[in-house]
């Protein structure tokens, strides 16, 4: 039976849709990686603090799909990120992406 949630084949045939399918995961990955680095935390330390596995941290930071919202919430909480701060960082990343797109 075909998995209707698997978008990889769509993206293969329509690469212009890549950002729509994978954009948010990539942005959240950047936020988590950046904050983990700022706090000088290892993936192991973040995993322990958030109550998730190290493989989960690796998948999240790699921009992997199929990450539950609850997992992101645990990671943001473990990193001490408020919703407001997350919003500001998303806007900052989007602005950089727009600038880089035109350079």
UniProtKB/TrEMBL annotation:
PROSITE patterns: HTH_CROC1. Coiled coil: none annotated. It comes from the Bacteria. Residues 36-86 form the HTH cro/C1-type domain. One of its GO terms (molecular function) is DNA binding. Signal peptide: none annotated. This is Helix-turn-helix. It comes from Parageobacillus thermantarcticus.
């Amino acid at each position: 039976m075909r998995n209707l949630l698997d978008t990889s084949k769509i993206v293969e045939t329509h690469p212009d849709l890549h950002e729509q399918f994978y954009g948010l995961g990539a942005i959240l990955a950047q936020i988590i990686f950046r904050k983990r680095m700022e706090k000088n935390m290892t993936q192991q330390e973040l995993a322990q603090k958030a109550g998730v596995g190290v493989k989960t941290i690796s998948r999240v930071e790699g921009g992997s799909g199929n990450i539950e919202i609850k997992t992101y919430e645990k990671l943001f909480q473990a990193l001490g990120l408020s919703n407001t701060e997350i919003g500001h960082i998303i806007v900052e990343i989007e602005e950089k992406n727009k600038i880089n797109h035109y350079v």
